[in-house]
UniProtKB/TrEMBL annotation:
The keyword Cell cycle does not apply. The chain crosses the membrane at residues 6-39, 51-84, 96-114, 134-154, 174-193, 232-251, 271-290, 341-360, 372-391. This is Uncharacterized protein. It comes from Epilithonimonas zeae. The keyword Membrane applies. Keywords: Membrane, Transmembrane, Transmembrane helix.
Length: 464
């Protein structure tokens, strides 16, 4: 299909799926529709392993949104679809540049849309789909719509005739959806990649090209030997400092008296923030010294060993922070924030692992950014596929200090567990609140449904 056909099909799909509907199951269907259409439109030679993996994750992300309908699932659908489209069009473009491409296209839409020749391909004589569409559908529909409103204002019976048959038309909603559909379709099927982005792409390779020679030091006031020595001294001093910090950190964690909930919460967050900041700075320092020449410098072996030791010590720090967060959870239960701490620490540990590989395998700094891009994408997928609310509630419900109201109001997708709990504890107020919430979701029209709530049976069993 040509670009303008794909754009107009997208507009039609948006109108059909979202007209007078809430965003729910319809977005999941829309995501699957775009995924399949992208797969069909992609050239066979571009359908490699990464593309096929993204196709699968796009389908699963769309299903996850249809099931949960939450913000993280929406992010997973959005990112998966655009990654799929970009990878199927420019497979050699580094993933880190996809962010730049997307942002440019989001904000240059108004300038590019008026360049009609670029996206609306002129059909061959006698084979104009667009001409037939305009002739047989758009022009008649335009006049019918105008005169429909004229007649509706002139006759109440005429207007009621359509109201009674549930054919109420909302022109503003229709127009807004058409504009949104065109915007999405245009950016998705007709995104542009500027020349300067292709020039940037060659600087983001994972491997160094050719022999890398140490031409000159980073700073003019230091020679190569001095810079190498400064790096060795810096890493050695930082290793000693980090060892002392790990010792004091673990002493406070395992040997000092347990604090109150507020005190432990503040302490945990302060320490985790310090750990994450420490690791970010550690990675930046390593990237500074191993950005180019020192990767291949035979005299920099001691520098490499010191850097690797520092990475290992930072990994120990991550594990210590994870244990501290686990202590917090054991004492006061699971929450979204406490699970989020694990996520941040996991990303920090992954960053350290890739940094270690970068030094060991003599990779470029871009290698780390390229790998962390996919790691972040993987984190989004994991967060969207798993029912964390169920995990939190099923874990906390075993505790004596189970906070009923907190889990009822602040935790999502745990209604089935709470219903069983309310039944056991004979908490009629909670049971009624849950039933009202579930029924409100189940009463929605098909395209506005969230599938998770369709699996919950709130009907009372019939007495024999």
């Amino acid at each position: 299909m040509k670009k303008h056909h794909l754009i107009f099909i997208t507009v039609l799909a948006v109108i059909i799926l979202f007209y007078k509907e809430y965003i729910a199951l319809n977005l999941g269907i829309f995501g699957i529709f775009l995924s399949i259409l992208t797969y069909i439109q992609t050239k066979p030679e571009f359908k490699r392993r990464t593309f096929l993996t993204l196709f699968v994750t796009s389908i699963f992300s769309s299903l996850a949104f249809a099931w949960f309908g939450d913000a993280i699932s929406f992010a997973a659908v959005f990112v998966s679809l655009f990654l799929l489209r970009f990878k199927g069009t420019y497979p050699k473009l580094k993933p880190f540049l996809y962010i730049e491409v997307l942002l440019l296209n989001l904000f240059t839409f108004l300038g590019r849309v008026f360049n009609i020749e670029q996206w609306y391909e002129k059909p061959k004589e006698g084979k104009s789909f667009g001409k037939k569409l305009i002739t047989f559908i758009l022009i008649p529909a335009f006049f019918v719509t105008i005169f429909f409103f004229i007649y509706a204002f002139g006759s109440d019976h005429f207007a009621n005739l359509f109201r009674d048959s549930e054919l109420e038309f909302q022109p503003l909603t229709f127009i807004v959806l058409a504009i949104i559909g065109f915007y999405i379709g245009f950016i998705f099927w007709n995104f542009g990649v500027e020349r300067f982005i292709f020039k940037q792409n060659r600087f983001l390779n994972d491997n160094f090209s050719g022999l890398v020679k140490i031409q000159r030091p980073t700073f003019s006031f230091l020679d190569i030997d001095s810079e190498r020595t400064s790096g060795l001294i810096s890493f050695s001093a930082l290793n000693v400092l980090l060892l002392i910090f790990i010792a004091t950190y673990n002493y406070e964690q395992f040997f000092e008296a347990t604090k109150s909930a507020d005190g432990l919460s503040a302490e945990t967050h302060e320490r985790v923030n310090a750990v994450i900041m420490s690791i970010i700075m550690a990675i930046l320092v390593i990237l500074f010294y191993f950005k180019k020449g020192f990767n291949f410098d035979d005299k920099a072996k001691s520098l490499k060993i010191s850097a690797k030791v520092w990475i290992v010590l930072n990994a120990v720090l991550v594990i210590s922070a994870s244990l501290k967060n686990s202590e917090y959870i054991i004492n006061y239960g699971l929450t979204y924030k406490r699970l989020g701490v694990y996520a941040f620490l996991a990303m920090a540990l992954i960053g350290l692992i890739f940094t270690f590989i970068k030094i060991q395998k003599k990779k470029t700094n871009a290698f780390l950014f390229n790998k962390m891009f996919w790691a972040c994408y993987g984190l989004i997928l994991v967060c969207s596929y798993v029912n964390w609310g169920w995990i939190i509630t099923s874990n906390n419900i075993k505790r004596k200090d189970f906070a009923e109201n907190y889990h009822l109001v602040s935790i999502n997708y745990n209604e089935q567990i709470l219903l069983d709990y309310a039944e056991k504890t004979k908490n009629s107020e909670m049971k009624n609140q849950l039933k009202e919430r579930i029924e409100s979701y189940q009463k929605e029209t098909f395209l506005s449904k969230i599938l998770y709530y369709e699996t919950i049976n709130i009907k009372k069993p019939k007495s024999k």
